[in-house]
Each structure stands twice: as C-alpha cells, then as structure tokens.
Write a structure and sequence with these properties.
By secondary structure, this protein is mainly α. Helices cover 61% and strands 11% of the residues. The protein is elongated, with a radius of gyration of 23 Å.
C-alpha cells in the first residue's frame, strides 16, 4: 500500500524537484499525483512501498529543516542589503487582491457594527 510522503500543493517547483531528486538518490520508489483538471485532488509524492515511508519522511524532514535555514539566511541577507520587497512594492505589483481584501474586511466590519449603530440612532 502506498502512502503520501510529501504534499505538493503551494510548493515551489525548485523544492518539489529537490525532493524528487532526494527520493531518487536514496532509491525510494515513488509516484506523483497532480491536482487534476479542476485542481481539487491532492497533488503529492507517494512512496510505493510501505517499508520506505518512514525513511522518506525522515529524509524530507531533514531536507526541509536545511532548506528553512537556507531561506532564512537568504531573506536576512536581502533585508541587510535593502533588497527585500516592501509591502507597498508588493501592492504596486499586484494591487487587486489587496484592494479586494481591504474591501471585504470593511464589509465585514460594516455588517457587524451596523445593527448596533441603528439601535443607537434615534428613529
């Protein structure tokens, strides 16, 4: 019976490729599933053999710890050099999602407070 060892949803392609190579290097048989046509299935890497599941998970966990440290150092270096993107640069790059989120939050606040405001105002 196969078991899921690594979920691929929202994973950068370079990380997914590194995990594939890690499994291949350690001779762990695996297969990959996609999100399907509608994107609702579970994309992931599955160990083909039950005996390899724990080994694969341990290898992936060690890899992710190392990758986390590398990415943190990379980010800290970018911040030190002043190259990390600021919030306003991200907003300029892609303003619609930010505007949509702000408008949605304002709507929620309005929906929550409007009954109390109506009660407080005289008729």
């Amino acid at each position: 019976m196969s078991a899921l060892v690594f979920k691929l949803r929202n994973v950068p392609e370079d990380e997914a490729q590194d995990v594939r190579e890690l499994l291949e290097t350690n001779r762990i048989e695996f297969y990959e599933t996609t999100a399907g046509n509608w994107g609702i299935a579970m994309p992931g890497l599955w160990a083909a053999d039950d005996d390899d599941v724990e080994k694969a998970k341990a290898l992936i966990q060690a890899y992710q710890r190392e990758r986390t440290q590398q990415q943190r150092l990379k980010y800290q270096d970018a911040v030190a050099r002043g190259e990390s993107p600021k919030w306003y640069a991200r907003f300029i790059e892609n303003p619609l999602p930010t505007i949509g989120i702000v408008l949605f939050c304002l709507f929620i606040v309005y929906a929550l407070l409007s009954p109390f405001v109506r009660l407080a105002l005289p008729n």
